[in-house]
Amino acid sequence: MIKGGRKIFSLKRIIGVITLITLLFFSDFIAGDKAILCVCKGNMTMPVFSENVRSQETDNCSFCLFPPIRYSPFQIDVNNGNYVSPFAQQNIPSVCFRHWLGTDKLGRDVAAGIVHGAGISLGIGLFATFLSLLLGVPLGISLGYYQDNTIRWNVIQYFVFIVSVFFVLFYISFLISSTSLVILTFACLIFMLILYLLIRSIGKWNMTKYNVPFDLFGFRILEWRKSIPALFLLLALLSLFSKPSVYNVIIIIALLSWADIARLIRAETLTIKNHLFVQSAITMGFSHVYIIVHHIFPMLKGSLIVIAMYIMAGAVLMEATLSFLGLGLPVEEVSWGKLLAESRNARAWWMAVFPGGCLIMLLLFLHSKTKKISGLY
């Protein structure tokens, strides 16, 4: 519940969310070499949504509305190459084409790179956070609720589960480098559903059943994951992929973050399960799924929001680190980390100040919103 009836939505938060959504989905409206809206011979067009129309092809139009930054992130300005400072004299036809934050070695606009890099960083952060929550939250709730004395299996159920787990891990190690992230995630969910139905049907057989030390084995897996240094695991995961891509970075960040989520959710679930209303529901004979969905999960919403914000901030920082080291993202993608990597040229101070400043402000923004949201619950 929300404490004190405080408002979740305020003008500042709405503006912040709109800004993030604009950077994520509409970066071409802020920085790009294509017009947003054109009126040509009485017809209204939007070249920004066309792949083939460029700004040079709209010169004969009576009216054109261009983005504030007239450059795309990979457009090379040969007249302003070799690190042109934002305060230096620039060889441009008009002030509309000025590089307000300078250029890099090839003459690419830094401001355009920052705008489009924000979309890449936010997109990776959101999807990596979602995938981390998808892995960590169900596992954490299951470990905290079922513990070691709730689930009882017979020998056949044990055998089917162990063989299925090894089968999945074996094939995932081969498919992870060549299969789409969406397809692989959907296939894993379908397999988990089939495995659940199979084990449940086998459980109806008249055989001796034994307690499943679910929490013991699950927590040992979490400890094993946390015992591996993140750098070693990062290098091992990078070796699984044949070529860099955005999806690879999302998978790597998710695999590095899910254990922390599972541990925190497990601890919260253990506390909530000991509450009187949950124990009363168990005594009254409600199903475990009903208790988890209607009693435990609603109590976890505040913690989940806080965890998700922190995981997203860590994902953005991890993506910038990988890009700075030249790992993860392909050449055709722009990011803040790649811009920061060019700041190793000590003469181009703006390559470090502006992308680094944007990264710090985004992290501080997520941190401040996390503190405010956590105070509402």
Spatial extent as radius of gyration: 26 Å
CATH homologous superfamily designation of the largest domain = MetI-like
For the biggest sheet, the summary is: 3 strands, antiparallel
CATH topology of the largest domain: MetI-like fold
Order of adjacent strands in the largest pleated sheet: 2-1-3
According to DSSP, the number of beta strands is 5
Strand content: under 5%
- Under CATH at level 1, the class of the largest domain stands as Mainly Alpha
Order of helical and strand elements:
HEEEHEHHEHHHHHHHH
Write down the overall geometry. elongated
CATH architecture of the largest domain: Orthogonal Bundle
Quote the distance from N terminus to C terminus. 6 Å
Unreliable stretches covering 5 or more consecutive residues: none
Structural category is: mainly alpha
Total separate domains: 3
**Helical content, roughly?**
55-70%
| Number of helical regions | 12
Mean pLDDT: 84
